[in-house]
Specification:
mainly alpha, 2 domains, two-stranded antiparallel ribbon, 2 helices
């Protein structure tokens, strides 16, 4: 009987030893998953802060435009033709997306 008991104990010890790597592997997998979740949470929090900061910047920009009391002068085509000498090419300095860019020394619209 004692041999049978020793055999059972040895078998039980062997099973225990065989299950240790599986348990360690499961612990390692759980740790890796927790780490990945933590990284994702950190990334999401960073994105949240970035959006909040960009939202504040946008809000400030809109408020600056809404509360701006600067009045802009409206120029009429006759004033522009007079200052540019009817869009003469000798005062053209370049070409913009909306048309020619000219230079004038005398600007009666602003005086």
């Amino acid at each position: 009987m004692e041999v049978g008991r020793s055999f059972e104990e040895a078998r039980s010890a062997e099973e225990t030893l065989m299950s240790v790597p599986k348990m360690e592997n499961a612990k390692c997998r759980a740790t890796m998953e927790a780490s990945e979740k933590g990284q994702m949470m950190t990334e999401l929090e960073g994105n949240k802060q970035k959006c909040k900061k960009e939202g504040n910047h946008t809000r400030k920009t809109v408020n600056a435009f809404v509360h701006n009391d600067v009045m802009y002068k409206r120029y009429y085509i006759k004033e522009i033709e007079e200052v540019t000498n009817r869009f003469t090419s000798n005062i053209k300095v370049g070409q913009g997306g909306y048309g020619p860019v000219t230079h004038t020394l005398s600007h009666p619209c602003c005086h």
